[in-house]
Amino acid sequence: MLAFILRRLLLMIPTTLGVAAVVFGIYHLAPGDPATVMMGMGSGGQMATDSDSASKIDAFRIKHGLDRNPVIQFLDYIGPVNLSRDGCSLFSSPYGERKVEEVELPDGSTVPEGKPLPIAYLPDTPEGEQGEMEDLRQVLLDDAAGDAAWSNAVSRLKEKNKKPEGACLPALMTSLQELRLETDSRSHAIERVGDALAQITGHELQLHPVRLEQLGPGALINGWFRWYYEEGGGGRVKNTGENTWGGLLCLQLGNEMQANTPVAAELMRRLKVTVPLSLVAVLLSYLIALPLGIFSVRNQGTKIDGGLTVVLFILYSIPTFWAGLMLILVFGKTGLDLLPVLGLHDKDADSLSGAAYAWDVVKHAVLPVLTLTYGSLAYLSRQMRAGMLEVIRQDYIRTARAKGLSERVVVYKHALRNSMIPVLTLLASILPILIGGSIIVEKVFDIPGMGKYAFEGLLRRDFYIVMAVTIFVGIMTQVGILLSDITYSLVDPRIRHE
Amino acid sequence: MICFPIRPTRALLSLGSLAVLAAPAICQDEAPVEVAGPGEAAKDVFHPDRDKDAEVLYGGRVIVHLASLPENICYPIENSAITRRLLREVHETLMIQDWEWHDYRPRLADSFVTEDLVVLNAEAAGRHGDGTGAIDAKVKRQGEVAEGQSAQKLVRAYYGQVTDGGDNWVVTPASAGASLQVAVEVPKSDVESIQRGAVFTFKVREGVLWHPSLVYPETHPDAVAALDGHTLDAADVHFSWTIYSNPKVDCDEKRFQFEKITHGEIVDDLTVRFFYEEQYAFAKGTIAESLTVLPSHIYNLADPNNPEHDASASLEKQAKHINENRHNQLWVGLGPYRVTQWTQQYVQAERFADENGKCLYFDRDNAGYVDTIRWRYIDDDETSMNALLNGELDFFERIKSADYFGARTEGDDFKSTHYKGFKYLGTYGYTGWNLYKPQLKDLAVRKAISMAMDYEAYRISNYKGLARRITGPFPYNSAAYDHDVAPLPFDPDGAIDLLEDAEWYDRDGDGIRDKDGVALEIDFLMPSGNDASKNFGLKLQEALGDLEIKVNMVQMEWATFLEKMKTRQFDGCNLAWVPPLESDPEQLWHSKWGEFDARGSNNAGVMDPKIDELIAAGQRELDFDKRQAIWREMHRYLYENVHPYLFMYNVPQKFALNRRFRGFQTLGIDPGYVIRRWHLWESTDKTRATLDR
Hints:
By secondary structure, chain A is mainly alpha-helical. Chain A has helices spanning 2-29, 34-39, 50-63, 70-78, 121-124, 127-141, 147-161, 169-179, 187-201, 209-215, 217-230, 263-298, 303-317, 320-331, 354-392, 395-402, 407-419, 421-436, 439-444, 450-460, 463-491, and strands at 100-104, 110-114.
């Protein structure tokens, strides 16, 4: 038995990875992307001017690695090696935005140029090195600094650059990027930084005369950026190695894209709302459905059985959203005014004492639980009835009756256990429902649970939420199946998991 | 132009189910309101007891619906309309556009001075060295800016009030601590340009108290005493501007606005000066209202009063301190209400008062009446409606038409607790035509579509006459809207003539007009689940069918819809804009955002030199009336000569408010109401007659 459970648990790992791959694939194939959604989130969003929304979208993509190869993105998500910017230093990947472009000249020919971008100066340089690096950088930028100070700074930088932690190129590129706004007034500084780069790297920059004429010192900046992206190693993400391990296999679910808060924490908070509600609902439906099913069997063919069947079928057919709305109409202020209909707390819940607070929660939970229960209750009791009817026709039941056992003993001792199998199979599907929550019920009653979270994540195209929720539900489905397999062997001695 | 693209939600536009009903007289017991243009706004026009005298009472709580919960309310990093609405009550800006009269009035600013910038040309720069009162300034580079060249350039300049003195410009210092001590005369030959109104000097009010922090008592209990009684000063305002130049602060959406402020300086404790890169009509609004004043003692790590003070903090650390600050939710502001609770369900703000209940807000006449405002977040409109009916909400402004005219708000239960009304903002629905599509490139086609359907009848049948038909992109309530532009008439025969004159015939006999091998077939793109769009689309489909134009209805989920729109993969898209009362139209209509690859809001792809010209002229026109005249000209030109949209309707928002509240006014500026003007009028144990408890 233990070996069986262990084997099944191990099997869950590849299955879950498969689920992840499928969800990831669908996510990438589906139209729409989180950055665009973020720019126009319904009435809560605002679209600023173009330049600004475009740069915001780019920044968003880079921040969340959406500019990278999807395969890398997937591997990064799964782990265990962290491939993002602060991840394992062994793995680097290209910066999507650091590209060299061909600029067309008036004569039709083209020259390659790099676009100055804010270079990741700080993450690439260790904390201890930053102070001095900044000072040296400022010397190069200082128009008033003399030649001696300049050469001194350059030789210091050159010295530092020999060691990986002292790499000064990002700092110098940052300087160039800043100077691009003042190409006219700061041409001297631009040249000095350019000279410093030439000395430190030993690279001699070749500039096209036409571009020099067009841009002046700006051509120098673009030229150095081209070199930095193509030859200087600045075109790739150099991971800092701060967080070597990460991803799903390390049980890290990442951060929400917009809020930047951990998905795991939010997931826990939502589970605390959803699980108690669903647990009560599932327990209730089993507790009512099983006796109801047995009752039907014992009164098979009578008018009561017929009536019950009709009622249960009607219940089973009522859509949840409609039932929820009707319950609100009937029990809320618009109807009998018996129960609160929204959320899980009263608007004045803050001021309530312990017992009153608990009672308030119970009152608020009645309608959602009812809505969650009635459908599965109807379904389960039908299953119970069918299962038991089949068992009751078996030979050993006839034998038991022939032995003269009372109907009560026949039903509860001999038939019940065996007729439980189909109902237990359903347990497998109930666990994920329990965790996944019900989107509709949570929306109708305004309960901030898992279902609503999943829905919001989907609308926002938030990769981390969608992945976390689907994988979580996937795992729970597998656990549910395992649990029902185990319980089979408990109720049916013929089933053995060896 | 900052616009809020909104998905025409059911609450806004879903009126379709009523289309079959005859239009009854609207709201018999409600006074009609017409909020158009500046002017005093009447109170309680929809309140059933509006004729009764209402006692003005303080105290109580109001629960206002919130359709989406922002991550936080630090406006520089959380750029959403909702954030701004919340800040309207819990925070203040240097100046505010008056709710009723629409002019700018000082709030945090005690006074302000606008001065002109006299830009000297390069040859003359040397003659105006240090000691002459000239300064180094950055101004916007005029004309074509080469790729790789910066958009601003460094110049020598004077600032002050500039008058014409014949051969010279006379520059007179007008603000405190100005670089000029006395007036100077600058030869006109030395001057490259004069940028009017580009220098702003604000003196902030003295003694304006910051709200106390709710976070530091937890994290830095020892430092709290020192923060007590902290008041607003010039350094706060200056710091609030500097964060936009820190590239690590998550304020990319705002950065461009503030990069136009080239320099800021603290003149004295209460005075701060900002230099704008050029003469710009919206410069004052940017500094006065868009700049969110942040408490330096909370957000600035270099501020010695900050409990987390770190003089040598790197840009990165400083940015992180702003981006991830818990005060972004538990806001430390200057408004009459302070945020005291932030949960997943609601945000609560309570009166800013001391322990004895004495109001600490600086402007007692504007301190609001209720003691507590709770913004209750419910994302689903149907659920929100149920919350309203069940007394969970006092105010809800997204009532569907079906509910507004239907049984749910007509019953005695509802009427005993709430009343309903409607209000207009600049929101307008439109169908944008993609001018890159061959079948829509033709002005005649677009105009024919606007003549094909009886939009007036649809307005009456579908909107019960409440919506207003519009012809241009400016808010109907604003002075920029040209009410003299008449909509094209309903004239199917005229439409057919237009099409035939433009050589659109059915050449291949398939029942659809065509020209040069292009069939006149239009995909009508709309967000899925939107009944209003669908109903309108169906009507349009029917009307255009008679003109032998084929319309295919395409519904897309919101995220997909946006992507299609951004990448110009649509023919016609049905959407709504929510423009503020006055804003720069550049983002929506300038040709630079109309390029095929431009990812802007000019989704029709309008590229018209005349429009560009008008936009540029309007942007530089500082005189309000003249500027409005330019916008009106643009409105007319756009409708008559470009016709990029099927301009549809300015649809009112339908709201309900608890009858316990009086003082409600519908206003033209978003969100169209001010909570701090609402008050209770029937005394209970929670009410009192005075502001202080």
